[in-house]
Amino acid sequence: MDDEFEIPPRPTFDEIERDCLAATPEYQAANVWDRFEAHAAKADAINPGHYKSHPSGIECIQITEHMNFNLGNAVKYIWRADDKGDPIENLRKARWYIDRELKRRGAE
């Protein structure tokens, strides 16, 4: 796993609720669950931020799920190139999948 991405410990619902008790009743009612969900989204190892940070608001998977494996992975590595790890390494991985797809299609 990448050293730069560490999942923060997820607080329990009771811990968040306890933290909210000092707030106004309106805040308590409206925001206890919102805060829990917000923290869970930050710690989402399945769908991390570098796949959701595109300025268009589109998630990478919304595009790649309509492609075959090789093309989808190439797009994934291009999509996150500057947001996770070494950009050059991400582009090399994208090229590897594109080369693999070219071979599959008999172009090489």
How would you describe the overall organization of this protein?
The protein is mainly alpha-helical and 108 residues long. It has two domains: 13-42, no CATH class; 55-104, no CATH class. Helices cover 56% and strands 0% of the residues. The chain has five helices and no strands. It has helices at residues 13-20, 25-42, 60-64, 69-79, 87-104. The longest helix has 18 residues, at 25-42. The protein is elongated. It starts with 12 loop residues before the first helix and ends with a helix.
Q: Keywords, please?
A:
108 residues; 2 domains; 0% strand; elongated; 5 helices; mainly alpha
Low-confidence stretches: none
Helix/strand/pairing category: mainly alpha
Distance between the termini: 33 Å
Query: Care to count the β-strands?
Result: 0
Q: Label the overall shape.
A: elongated
Mean model confidence by pLDDT: 78
In N-to-C order, the SSE pattern is HHHHH
Count of domain modules: 2
Q: Evaluate the radius of gyration.
A: 20 Å
Q: What is this entry, summarized?
A:
The protein is mainly alpha-helical. The chain has helices at 13-20, 25-42, 60-64, 69-79, 87-104.
Any chance you could write out the topology, listing elements then pairs?
Elements (H helix, E strand, L loop, with lengths): L12 H8 L4 H18 L17 H5 L4 H11 L7 H18 L4
Helix pairs in contact: 1-2, 4-5
